Every structure is written in C-alpha cells, then in structure tokens.
Amino acid sequence: DTVGFIRDLPEDLMGAFAATLEELQDADLLLHVIDATSPRMEDQIKTVEQVLEKLDLTAKPVVLVLNKTDLLDPEAASTLEKRTGGVAVSAIHPPTLLPLIERVEAAIWPGGATRPT
C-alpha cells in the first residue's frame, strides 16, 4: 500500500522519498491507480493529491484509475466513476481496459489529434 507508506512517512524522510518521484516531472500523463474496493479510497486519493501538490505536479494531467471494480456491483462501479471522474477497470476483465486506453489517448492527444505512427 504505497499510499499508506506515503501518508505515514515522517516529514524528514518525505524529501528523500520525493527525490525518488522527481521523474514524474518528465511525464506527459500520470495514472493514479486506486483500489476501488478500499474503505479508505477517498483518503488515499486525497493523500496522493497532496503529495502531487507538494511535488508541484498539479499541472500534469492525471487519469484516476479505479482498479478492482470486478469486486463491485456494476451499478456501484458506474456511480463511482461518475462521482470521481475516474475510469473503472478490472485486470481480470480486459475489455474494461478499453475506456482507460481511450482516456489516456484523449489526454495525450487532445482534440482528436492523430497519434504518431
């Protein structure tokens, strides 16, 4: 649970851990993967957002990926997508990855620009 690790990290070690995340500065897009079944999901999302803010990464586009939605009722997964603006996926149901791929493509190539070949 990386989020738990980050949240509980002593402040004096946060700088050292942040140095590990400096490569995020070079990213065109960040995928924020969250366990959609976690009872602490909302807190985990906020924790990651706070870390991104501390790292001055709030201008980077972020796609929230709601993982493990196969463990949720389909209606609950849909409601969660609408509420969070995320994309519901399940690694054991590959067809759920298509909306994620489409969201990533839209974020990387906005306006329907043709992707490089």
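The record above closes out task 2.4. Task 2.5 opens with a second protein, given below.
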Amino acid sequence: PDGKVVARDISIQTHSVIQNIKAVLEDMGASLENVVDVSVFLTHMKEDFQTFNKVYGEYFAKIGPTRTTVEVLSLPTPIAVELK
C-alpha cells in the first residue's frame, strides 16, 4: 500500500506495473488498447518468465502489442520487472 517492495513476487509486481501504466494512460485519455509495443525487463528470466507471461496475457492477450522481453542484471529500484 505504501509503494515499498516487500518481496520479489513477480505476479504482484507485474500486476502493479501494468496497473500503473494503465492509470497513466487513462490520465492522458488513452488505454491499454492503445499500446502497440512493449519492452519488458526481467531480473530473473528463468524463474519468472512463465508467471510474468501469464499475468501479462491477462491484460494484453486480446490487444496483441509487439513485445521484446530481456533479462537484465538489475533495475534502478528493488523490483524484478519493468515495462516500457
């Protein structure tokens, strides 16, 4: 609730990051349906991709934007997933 990461739960973090993007888009008069390309950065590809992909699909399966997913050593904050 206070925005602090308390555990590396990829499902919770993925829902959170997509909900944040959704809120920003809606503030600008757009929606997830306007997304045409997504860059995904995961810090633990092998362990997290399957769960990440399932959650991602809940939001984007019908929309179908192109996607690039890469593993990175770390992100600027203590999170395991970032979308651009």
